[in-house]
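Complex record, two chains
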Amino acid sequence: MLKIKKKIIVRIIIMLDINNLKVSIAGKSILKGVSLHVKPGEIHAIMGPNGSGKSTLASVLTGREFAEVTEGTVTYMGNNLLEMSPEDRAKEGIFLGFQYPIEIPGVSMVNFMKTAVNEKRKHHGLDPLSASDFLKMMREKKELVEIDSKLANRSVNEGFSGGEKKKNEIFQMAMLEPKLAILDETDSGLDIDALRIVANGVNKLKKADNSFIVITHYQRLLDHIIPDVVHVLYDGRIVKTAGKELALELEAKGYDWIKKEVENNVIA
Amino acid sequence: MDKDQDKILDEVTTGEYKYGFHSDIESEQIQKGLSEDVVRIISAKKNEPDWLLEFRLKAYRHWLTMKMPAWPNLKIPVINYQDIIFYSAPKQKPKLNSLDEIDPELKRTFDKLGIPLEEQKHLAGVAVDAVMDSVSVKTTFREALAEMGIIFCSFSDAVHEYPDLVKRYMGTVVPYTDNFFASLNSAVFSDGSFCYIPKGVRCPMELSTYFRINAANTGQFERTLLVADEESYVSYLEGCTAPSRDENQLHAAIVEIIAEKNSEVKYSTVQNWYPGDKDGKGGIFNFVTKRGMCRGENSKISWTQIETGSAITWKYPSCILRGDNSTGEFYSVAVTNNHQQADTGTKMIHIGKNTKSTIVSKGISAGKGQNSYRGLVKILKNASNARNFSQCDSLLLGDKCGAHTFPYLEVDNQTAIVEHEATTSKIGEDQIFYCNQRGISTEDAIGMIVNGYAREVINKLPMEFAVEAQKLLQISLEGSVG
C-alpha cells in the first residue's frame, strides 16, 4: 500500500528529469554532463556567459535535429523525451519561447494559432474549437498578455519589431497553455516596458502545476520573474545551483568569479 | 476561410494523385495519326460549315511548315503526331426518356471528380460545361443564363447556333498562324466552351469548364472563346484532370478572350492534369495558348492560374492592351514537383494610352522539378503613361530542384514606368521547426508555408476554388521535404 503511494508521488513531483546529458553539435561537444530536475510549479533560471550551452539545452529539450545527444537521459512526465518528435513534445505541453522568432509570410497568426491549438486538442482527444470559441480565446489571451490586437491579424512575425516578436511568443505561450515553458533569452533586445509585459505574462500564466525554465544572460528579467532556483551553466556544465540570490550575486560580480572558481576546482 | 483551411489540413493524408482513375466509357475514336483527311473527318463528324473546314485546312497546311519551338527551358521528348488519336468522343447511350439524359457512367465520372452534372446538385452560382476527351458532354444552367442573353455552350453548339459570333471573333486574338501548337489546335480542335456576355450584363454566376481526358493515346485539343461585350462582367474558371497513364498525352488548347469597352473578364485556371509518377513516367504535355484582347477603353482582363499538374507546362496567358486605360493582370502559382517541368509566364502588350498591367508570379519547385518564369512586357510607341509592375518569386524545397526567371522588357515610350521585382527563397528548416514546436507536423507546416507564400494569388480565385487550390498545393507537395 505504502509503496504504491510513493510511486505516485514520485511521478508527480518530477516534471523534467535531466541526467548527465551530453550533447554535441557537428561533432563538437557542447553539453558535457548536465543534470537538472524541475518540479511542477517551479521556475528555474539558467544563467551563464555566451557560448556556455544554454540555447543548446533548449534545442535538445524541444528536439532540434542538429543537436546530437551522445549520453544521458531526459525524462518528461515519466516518458523518454528524447524519443518523442518535436511536434509531439509540443502537444505534450513543452513550449519554447524562441530567442529569434521566425517569420512565416502570408500565414496569419489566427490561422497559425488555430492550427496549433487544434492539433494539441486532437492529440488529447478533444474536438477542435469552434471559430467563435477560438476567437474568444484569442481575445482573452491578448488581454492577458497585453499584446496589441493588431499583431494577431498580421502574418506570423512578419515585419514585427524585435519587441513585438518576443511579446508574440508570450501570447502564443498563453494560447497553448504549456506544462513546461522554456524561454530562451526572451529578455534580450527588450526595452523596459516590453520586459515588464513579458514578465507579467509569465507571472499571470504561472500555476501550481506548470513550470518554467528561463534562460537569460542578465539578472534584470529576474527582478520581475522570481525564480525558485538559479543555475549557472558554464562550459557545458551546471557549475552552481542556488536560490534567487545567486542572480543578484552574478549581476554584482559578473561571471568571472564563477570562471575562476571552476578553474580552481579543476586544478584542485 | 480559416475553418476551411483547417479542414483541408485534416483531410489530406495521402499524396497520391486523386484523379488518376479512368472510366470504362465506350468511345468513338478515329484512326491514329494526322493528315488532311483526319482534319476533314473531324470537321465532318461535327457537321461543320464549310468556312470552318477551310479555317482548319489553312491552319493544318500552315502547321506543316512550322517547327516545334526550341526556346523554352524545357526538355521535351520527340512527339510523334502519327501516334496520337485526334478525336475521341464518349459514345452516348441511346436517349430514352428525356433529351437531357446523359450516360450514367459519364455522370458517375464527373460526380467522382466533384463536378455533379445535375443543376440542382451543383454548387450554387456555378454553371459548368463538362468536356470529356474531344467533346462537351453537358452544359448546366444554359437556359437560365439564356434568359439574360448570356450564351454559354459548347463550342460545337456555338458553331451551329451562333455562327456569326464565332466567325466574327474566332482567331482574332490567336490567329491560326500564331505558333506551332496554336496552328495544330486550329486544325484539329474538337470542342470547348463558348461564352458571350451581352452589353451591360453582369453574369450572375461563375461560369466554368471542366476538362477531363479519359481515353488512352488521345490528345485533347479544345478551344475556348469568351466575349465580353461593352459594360459587361464575367468570372470564368477552368479545371482539368486526367487518368494516370504511363504514356504522355498531349493537351494543346487555345483560349481567346475579347473584352469590349468598360467590360471586365476574370479567367481562373486550376490546372491539375496528371503530372506523371515519381520517376517522371507519364503525365500530360500541357502546351496551351491563352490570350486576351482588351479591345475597348477601360476594359480589364485578369488571368489567375494555379498550375500544379502536367509533366510539362508551356503556357503564357497574355493580354493585349489595345483600348486606352485598359488593364491586364496575371497572377500565377506554378508548382513543379518530382520530374515536372514548367515554362510559364505572360505577355503584356501595351498599345493604348494609360494602360496598366500587373504580374505576380509565384513559382514553387520541389523534388527534381524545374520551374521557369518567362514574361514579356512590351510598351509600344503610342502607349503613353503605360505602367507595369512585375513581381516574380521563386520558392525552393530541397536542393535538387531549379527556379529560373526570364523577364523581357521592350519599352518604346519614354513616359512608361516599368517595375520588376524578383526574389528566390527556400523553405527554411527554421520555419518548419517553428511550426513543429507549436505542435504542427512537418507535412502540415509545408502546406501552411506554401499556402502563405501563394496567398496573394489564391486570394484572386473565386472562394470555392480558392479552397480547392489550397488543398491541391498541399497535396502536390506532399513527401517533397524530409
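Note: Residues 2-476 of chain B form one domain.
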